[in-house]
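Example 394.
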Amino acid sequence: MSHLRTRAVHAGQGPDPAHGALATPVHQTSAFGYGTLEHGAAIFSGDAPGYRYSRFGNPTVQALETKMADLEGAPAAVAFGSGTAATASILLGLLKPGDELVFLGPLYGGTESLFRSLGERFGIRAVDASLRGLPDSLTPATRMVWVETLTNPGLRLHDLSAVAAVARSRGVVSVADNTFCTPCLTRPLEHGFDLVMHSMTKYLGGHGDATGGVVAGSAALVAAIRSTGLGQVGGNLSPQEAFLFLRGIKTLPLRMAAHCEGALAVAQFLSTHPAVAVTHYPGLASHPQNALATRQMQGGYGGMVSFELAHGGRAGAAAVLDRLQLFTQAVSLGDVNSLACHPASTTHSFITPQARAQNGIREGLIRLSVGIEHPHDLIADLAGALDAAGHAGT
Ligand code: 4LM
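Predicted structure in complex with 4LM:
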């Protein structure tokens, strides 16, 4: 069972011991009977294994945690009700007032805003190291370094092994948000990261019908995050949604291959279109980090493409987006169906205009989540919208 494609199907799951059910049952319960007072006491103290209350753990959720730990090559994992709950639980579980969190921006707008608002209200200073670089941004107070394996929405990369090495040499916990790449394309722990997290809402679920998050890493770090994020904050994932993620992940490698194929074709089309000033896709030879992407990403360059119109700013973006038929205008990503959004007014509206400007999130930027439809149909949709919007040949 060494190949990821095999493990995506089998890891964490097998015939249910109660009745042999092949699909992992949804253990839709809040509490678990423990029989006797002493057995209950032993479960609560951790001296005996067993479930007690779904906020702390649930068999369906645990099957998913086991699968995700396996796919990321981690000893342990803990699931949450959203990617944001996972992010907040990492902060609250591992940092304290006076600590610094250094991130390599840009990040998903919600993550950056969480660092700045929630983090700073609790005395955790968030520092964007994208201008000064990593070693120079670390201080004796730095306790954590945070990166996205493929940035949202600019689709830039960081050299993961280099980032992990700097963090390790300074005794700082390194965290990689692997939402855009998934373990099919990049496994940050293999590059030396301490923790990897995901918004499972995206590719892992894959069908746009559930929100969830997960963190994987060492048993000690995951235990600290679990205890705060589940026990104290109550950010647990529901068993029903865990079932949907378990089902979705079985086809993740197949879906990712189709996303990558479609996104490359879409990016190649956009990069030659006269109405498009720049296309961001790590698989294009014109991408400034194409060589790093080829080294660091395995089996493809991901399903996300962003592009900037040559003219028209926000009105130009609206003219294109409002004419798309097959791409649905919505935030989120990683669904089997294609989505398109305007980051400046949606996903990255939470960050300051200066941060948007610094990170190239201009009004003419459009982000595509390329689904698994036939690439020719997606390209025809984009061509139709660009032409009808009057951009062709401008
Ligand atoms: C979006 N993103 O971009 P939940 N990490 C990354 C993300 O892109 C997101 C989260 C964490 C989008 C949502 C509206 C790289 C979310 C947060 O949404 O809390 O599961 O994950 O469109």
